[in-house]
DNA sequence: TAGTGTGAATTTCTTCACAGCG
DNA sequence: CGCTGTGAAGAAATTCACACTA
């Protein structure tokens, strides 16, 4: 266990990718250094938080100057494990699964879609955006062969837990769940969820409780 | 300002939709009451949290018995502002915008897609899944006429802030941002974000730091 | 001198534990 | 007696404020 002295708080981990994106922009603009203040503005947080967050990675700044963009970008990529690609598998070749396979953003950011999986024999063998649809039974083999470490659940809610179990069974312990269902995984696995309707419902709450109930 | 005595904490608001979904399931199964323990299990949290969260809505439980499923469902819907539909507009009729328009889950949960908006004249006038594409200039009129209160940003990152400003300009103060960019809105507006690649990067971090670095 | 790094203070969120009620 | 509702304790996250140094 890497129980390192300075474990990085969850809230910080969730912000690192935002900083990373900001740094990539700065590199594009040929900026060689950046202050916590500037980075905070770009990331939409405050400067104290940036400094605290970055301090968990190590002392990579220079007092009176700021942070070296390229060096910080490298250190952060390393910490996030983004120095190599992570092939992903998408479970469910329905509307959402197809859309995700079709979405270039994953591959572009180092998460190539290695396979789509569906239980429907009619879909198996097809291709979407160059990604082959396989049967569930192939999952363990594919996971092994293609070194898949992350599974994306894009099935109906009713199938989500079973599909999560199949992923775990195949040795895939990082799961991103798009199905509107609560799924549980053992503590050694990681689970993130994206629930579109839920986000809208949260907005609805604040809309409902807005000072001036516009409309 | 509704500075009511018991403001509901943000963390609680974010969980209410999960409880709501669980309650809907229970209603389906003809369960008339539910304990905090059972609800906690369904929502993937612990019972103390459920009770604390529900207590912000009022004292809707019965000691020794639990919560009346139907009554709690109603009170929660009301609090979340889900007793009526909230028409939404999707900004950007590209891959993602089309996929979202095509995704039935929104309408089904009370967020009908009233319009797609795109700047590209070639796309204006088309329909996707029965949703008409309009030009940006039409936004203020559409917002007014259709009572749109929520805007979904599905444009490239480079356009996201400008599009957010257009939404605010049109009186739409609740925004769900899918573009991989930080956008800022005035304090009276609400903003939620969904960033797919970011979620994968967070998973990558934990994968990287996993006890047994499977693969 | 400008801007980092970080203890300390503050706020927010979670969990505990039990009084109190149906 | 069982389960809610909630003060109080505890943990996590945020913000403050300033010593320190390149």
Structural class from helices and strands of chain A? Answer: alpha/beta
Quaternary: homodimer
- Using the coordinates above, name the CATH class of the largest domain in chain A: Alpha Beta
CATH architecture of the largest domain in chain A: 3-Layer(aba) Sandwich
Determine Rg of chain A (CA atoms, Å). Answer: 20 Å
The helix-strand sequence of chain A is HEHHEEHEHHEEEHEHEEH
Low-confidence stretches of chain A: 1-5
Largest interface (CB < 8 Å): A-B, 67 and 66 residues
Counted by DSSP, the helix tally of chain A is 9
Q: What's the mean pLDDT score of chain A? A: 95
Terminal Cα span of chain A: 53 Å
The CATH homologous superfamily of the largest domain in chain A is called NAD(P)-binding Rossmann-like Domain
CATH topology of the largest domain in chain A: Rossmann fold
Strand arrangement in the largest pleated sheet of chain A: 6-7-5-4-8-9-10
Largest sheet of chain A: 7 strands, mixed
Give the helix level of chain A as a range of percent.
40-55%
Count of distinct structural domains of chain A: 2
Amount of beta strand of chain A: 15-25%
Q: How many beta-strand elements of chain A?
A: 10
What is the molecular shape of chain A? globular
In short:
2 copies of one chain form a homodimer. By secondary structure, chain A is an alpha/beta fold.
């Amino acid at each position: 266990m890497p129980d390192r002295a300075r474990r990085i708080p969850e809230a910080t981990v969730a912000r690192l990718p935002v900083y990373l994106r900001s740094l990539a922009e700065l590199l594009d603009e040929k900026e060689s250094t950046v202050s916590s203040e500037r980075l905070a503005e770009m990331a939409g947080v405050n400067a104290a938080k940036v400094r605290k967050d970055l301090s968990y990675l190590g002392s990579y700044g220079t007092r009176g100057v700021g942070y070296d963009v390229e060096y910080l970008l490298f250190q952060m990529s390393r910490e996030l494990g983004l120095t190599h690609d992570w092939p992903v598998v998408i479970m469910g070749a329905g509307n959402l699964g197809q859309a995700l396979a079709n979405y270039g953003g994953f591959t572009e950011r180092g998460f190539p879609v290695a396979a789509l999986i569906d239980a429907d024999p009619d879909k198996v063998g097809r291709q979407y955006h160059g990604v082959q649809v396989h049967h569930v039974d192939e999952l363990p083999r594919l996971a092994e062969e293609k070194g898949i470490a992350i599974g994306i659940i894009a099935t109906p809610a009713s199938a989500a837990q079973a599909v999560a179990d199949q992923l775990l069974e195949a040795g895939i312990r990082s799961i991103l769940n798009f199905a509107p269902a609560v799924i549980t995984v053992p503590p050694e696995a990681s689970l993130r969820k994206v629930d579109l309707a839920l986000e809208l419902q949260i907005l609805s709450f604040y809309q409902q409780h807005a000072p001036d109930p516009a409309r």
